[in-house]
Write a structure and sequence with these properties.
five-stranded mixed sheet; Nucleotidyltransferase, domain 5; alpha/beta; 47% helix; 353 residues; globular; 12 helices
Length: 353
């Protein structure tokens, strides 16, 4: 019977520190290898037994996942935020690798989903578009801040208009100040052009997926939002229940409590109100949370069951912020159901409860 070996890669830009541990928890081999394909693959080929490998999510994780998948019995890309053991005691590259191997051996790692290569093109285009959106917003804020630094009121969106650019630049002092303003406006124009191109490429790639047409029928979900949704979720089958999707998207409710039970005539009885809601979970994908919440804002403005639900609950005195999160959770559950089971959205089939 082949022996199980637990391998951890502590990956850095130039080198990767490797620790190999057997099933008994004894370190049997260590190495420092270049962070390159051939040395890493050669090291794995030199090992015997059933290989289990882990590495932390980071810059090199996607490349290494594609490179090593299928070459070991188990490959786990783990979430470094949950590896509390690495923060204890002394910290060196070798100790980090040793602790990672031990966490893998004991099953204490939280894996990060990497999916398959079929969605790589869509995910890359989604990342490019989202980065350009963030850069565009950053430059727009920078332009307004610059005009305000000269006491120029620039409320509204007119300051970003290409037709009004000369008028706005004329309010700045001549010389270097005006040159800086021109550079900021030109930077914004370049980013807008790149953003439009990234949007076209992303939408073109998303049309290759049959589920995109079905999800576009949902309230608040247009072609762009659906493309970002598919890139973010990748597959609905990774979420066993809607609660799992809510937690992943930052819409999961967090409950906290202590001393939940008391003894009544010798029996353990749960105390009323022992568990209290403490908001939404903090560990999540911010992009998906923003996507579902923005879709909810659109859905409650359009005539339909979601607007009816929002208005009826609003009249009952429910906080609008809580209602928007509730609608976002309902949309997420609907997305999961339609994507898993097929079919199309029908407004009359949505329950009001």
């Amino acid at each position: 019977m082949s022996e199980d070996k637990y391998i951890a890669f502590d990956v850095h830009q130039a080198t990767t520190v490797v620790s190999v541990m057997n099933a008994a928890g004894r370190e049997v081999k260590t190495a420092v290898l270049p962070t390159q394909a051939q040395p890493l693959l050669g090291f794995l080929e030199s090992l015997r037994g059933r290989l289990h490998l882990t590495l932390e999510e980071g810059t090199y994780a996607a490349w290494l996942y594609d490179l090593l998948q299928g070459r070991v019995a188990e490959l786990v890309v783990c979430d470094p935020r949950h590896n509390a053991l690495l923060k204890e005691g002394s910290k060196t590259d070798h100790q980090d690798a040793h602790k990672l191997a031990d966490l893998l051996r004991t099953g204490m790692l939280r894996p990060v989903y990497h999916g398959n290569r079929s969605l790589r093109n869509l995910r890359e285009l989604a990342h490019a578009y989202q980065a350009l959106v963030q850069d565009t917003t950053r430059v727009m804020n920078r332009i307004k801040a610059y005009y305000r630094s000269y006491g120029i009121d620039c409320a509204g969106r007119g300051v970003y208009s290409r037709k009004q650019r000369e008028s706005w630049l004329g309010r700045l002092p001549a010389g270097a100040s005006r040159v800086r303003g021109e550079l900021l406006h030109e930077q914004l124009e370049q980013l807008r052009s790149l953003r439009r191109r990234a949007r076209r490429e992303l939408l073109g790639e998303s049309r290759k997926y049959l589920v995109a047409a079905r999800l576009c029928g949902l309230p608040g979900f247009g072609p762009l939002r659906v493309a970002l949704l598919i890139a973010g979720m990748q597959t609905p089958h990774r979420f066993r229940t809607r609660g799992k999707l809510w937690s992943y998207s930052g819409l999961g409710l967090v409950q906290k409590g202590s001393s939940e039970y008391r003894l009544v005539e010798g029996r353990a009885v749960r105390r009323p109100g022992a568990l209290q809601l403490r908001g939404l979970n903090r560990s999540h994908r911010p992009g998906l949370k923003a996507l579902f919440k923005s879709a909810a804002l659109v859905a409650i403005r359009q005539p339909g069951p979601f607007q009816d639900y929002y208005q009826s609950r609003l009249q009952q005195g429910v906080d609008p912020a809580i209602l928007r999160v509730t609608v976002a959770r309902k949309l997420a559950a609907l997305v999961l159901s339609l994507w898993k089971k097929g079919g199309r959205y029908r407004a009359e089939g949505v329950k009001q409860a």
